[in-house]
Amino acid sequence: MINKSETEQKIAEFLLQIKAIKLQPNKPFTWASGLKSPIYCDNRITLSYPSIRTYIRQNLSALIQEEFGSVGLIAGVATAGIPQGVLVAQDMGLPFAYVRAQAKEHGTGSLIEGEVYPGQRIVVVEDLISTGKSSLQAVKALRDAGADVAGLVAIFSYNLKEAEENFKEAKCKFETLSNYSALINYASDTSYINKDDIELLRKWKDDPKGWGSLVESLK
User: Fold this and answer.
1) Max alpha carbon distance in the chain (Å)?
2) Is residue 142 within 8 Å of 114, Cβ to Cβ?
3) Nearest by Cα to 202 from 21, 45, 38
4) Omega into 190 within 30° of 0, i.e. cis?
5) What is the distance between the alpha carbons of residues 153 and 139, in angstroms, rounded to a whole number?
6) Half-sphere exposure of residue 25, counting CA atoms within 13 Å on the CB side?
7) Which residues of the chain fall short of a pLDDT of 70?
8) Cα-atom radius of gyration of the chain, to the nearest Å?
9) How far is CA 180 from CA 26, 58, 152, 187, 204, in A?
10) pLDDT tens for residues 103-138?
11) How distant is the alpha carbon of residue 142 from its chain centre?
12) Contact at 8 Å (CB) between 73 and 120?
């Protein structure tokens, strides 16, 4: 049985260790949406570290079995969810398919690559959950194809309230191996970030849209 608290901390440790996650509360990153953020996460980097890649694969597989039971197919979300999904599907001995960000503009015009059957019970694999919108587009595509989407799993979540609301509205359960709150707790416990910056990091989760103005006011 997966120990969620232990796994959350271990994943946080790994992601910081290999710099898949960068924390810059005083020099924020700017997302494509324009949102200012103290965190940048690129879980593709985990693929370059076999032991970490294996830990993630094993724990995603265990999470799926515990939270969703028997499933017939693993589906990855393009692009970063594809390699993670393939690893999990291989580990579980299941078929794999993936969902494109948009349908091909040539050939068959496919949005879903791979064999997906009506009524097939599927778990979707992502690398990261921010607002959840792109992930839920993939869930919708699979449902439109007649699949029974049991839910979604990911390596990491930013813990944004908007994501929780979006998944709730879509009636799609999601689980992650670690999350922003666990990451900040780990960074605090290990003195990875100083005390003043920890408070600033926690405030981002409470008000991500207003946080950028708060940082500017502190300069």
Assistant:
1) 56
2) no
3) 38
4) no
5) 12
6) 18
7) 104-109
8) 18
9) 17, 21, 18, 10, 10
10) 766 656 689 999 999 999 999 999 999 999 999 999
11) 18
12) yes
In degrees to the nearest 10, what's the CA dihedral of 75, 37, 164, 2? Answer: 60
Residue 182, sorted as left (phi over 0), alpha (psi -120 to 50) or beta, turns out to be alpha
How far is the C-alpha of 64 from the C-alpha of 134, rounded, in Å? 20
- Cα separation, 185 vs 171, in Å, equals 29
Do 84 and 63 contact (CB within 8 A), yes or no?
no
Which residue type occupies 101?
A
User: Distances from the Cα of 1 to the Cαs of 4, 54, 148, 215, in angstroms?
Assistant: 9, 17, 25, 41
How many CB atoms lie under 10 A from the CB of residue 160?
18
Give yes or no for a contact between 120 and 72, defined as CB atoms under 8 angstroms apart: yes
**Strand, helix or coil for residue 30:** strand
- What is the rounded distance in angstroms from the CA atom of residue 68 to the CA atom of residue 121? 10
Query: How far apart (Å, rounded) are the C-alpha atoms in residues 207 and 211?
Result: 6
The residue with tokens 């993630």 is: 56
Whole-model pTM: value is: 0.95
Which tokens go with 111? Answer: 């949005």
